[in-house]
């Protein structure tokens, strides 16, 4: 009987440890996979397709935060990451996720840009890609706050059709608000890039640390500069209607390991328990 009880206790403890490795709540396309890792693995760093995978230390424990691609094959069972010189396999059990459709009428210059605009789009894409390759060493605060007071008018992941032509899926969340409404940093970080791009309009791109990033687009005005360290809650600009936009709103995207994930995962949720 003592042996049986001891076995039960050990088995129960093992199951408890295993259960803490992955936060199953967000393990779906466009979601976040969370796993506890060792101190050595934390300091060696993780990479996915040469992109830094965010890691965080909390309560003397270390965790991996992997952004799951929105368009991942639902049958995918494992992902191979690099940890130092070693391959590290993470096992996935993906939940089903339904993404709706949204139809938008917009100026033809955004759906049928001329050659001059195409050249501009390519230049701006290259500039943004260069910024995507940068990240900072900063303790990550994954407990985000909402960046603007407004009504959600567009959710993450929807298939979008512009003038009845299929476009890219919606890679962020839209908040409808009056022009000039304050936009605040949902978490602290460093400003990597600002500017005015054809599609983005006025925008701010920042890294919260370890390649956990946010981009805020369609802004009316920008109140930060490249290289600025911004604290959570600081004003970074104001809501506008610039770029590929049909009305005053903030579009906010979040990426992990350069993969777009649903920003609302970070609002009012504890990713790491």
Question: How would you describe this structure to a colleague?
Answer:
This protein has 273 residues and is α+β, with helices and mostly antiparallel strands. It folds into 2 domains: 2-91, Immunoglobulin-like (Sandwich); 101-266, Distorted Sandwich (Glucose Permease (Domain IIA)). Helices cover 18% and strands 38% of the residues. It has 4 helices and 20 strands. Strands 9, 12, 13, 14, 15, 16, 17, 18, 19 and 20 form a 10-stranded antiparallel β-sheet that branches. A 4-stranded antiparallel β-sheet has the order 3-2-6-7. Strands 1-5-4 form a 3-stranded antiparallel β-sheet. Strand 2 and strand 3 form a beta hairpin. The longest helix has 20 residues, at 2-21. The protein is globular. 32% of the residues are buried.
Structural class: alpha+beta
Summed up, the domain count is 2
Helix content, binned percent: 10-25%
Number of helices: 4
Task: Using the coordinates shown, work out and report the CATH topology of the largest domain.
Answer: Glucose Permease (Domain IIA)
Portion in strands = 35-45%
Main beta sheet, described? 10 strands, antiparallel
């Amino acid at each position: 009987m003592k042996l049986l009880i001891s076995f039960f206790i050990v088995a129960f403890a093992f199951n408890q440890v295993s259960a803490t490795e992955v936060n199953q709540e967000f393990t779906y396309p466009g979601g976040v996979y969370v796993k506890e890792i060792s101190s050595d693995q934390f300091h060696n760093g993780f990479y996915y397709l040469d992109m830094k995978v965010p890691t965080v230390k909390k309560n003397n424990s270390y965790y991996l935060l992997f952004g799951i691609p929105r368009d991942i094959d639902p049958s995918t069972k494992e992902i191979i990451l690099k940890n130092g010189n070693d391959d590290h396999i993470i096992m996935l059990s993906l939940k089903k996720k339904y993404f709706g459709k949204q139809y938008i009428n917009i100026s033809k210059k955004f759906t049928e840009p001329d050659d001059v605009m195409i050249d501009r789009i390519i230049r701006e894409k290259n500039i943004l890609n260069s910024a995507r390759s940068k990240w900072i060493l900063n303790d990550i605060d994954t407990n985000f706050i909402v960046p603007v007071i407004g009504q959600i008018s567009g959710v993450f992941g929807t298939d979008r059709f512009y003038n009845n032509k299929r476009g890219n899926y919606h890679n962020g969340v839209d908040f409808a608000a009056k022009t000039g409404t304050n936009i605040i940093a949902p978490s602290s970080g460093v400003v990597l890039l600002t500017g005015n791009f054809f599609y983005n309009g006025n925008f701010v791109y920042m890294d919260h640390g370890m390649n956990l990033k946010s981009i805020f687009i369609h802004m009316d005005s920008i109140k930060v500069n490249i290289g600025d360290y911004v604290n959570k809650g600081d004003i970074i600009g104001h809501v506008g209607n610039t770029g590929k936009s049909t009305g005053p709103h903030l579009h906010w995207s979040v990426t992990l390991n350069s993969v777009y994930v649903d920003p609302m995962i970070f609002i009012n949720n504890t990713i790491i328990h």
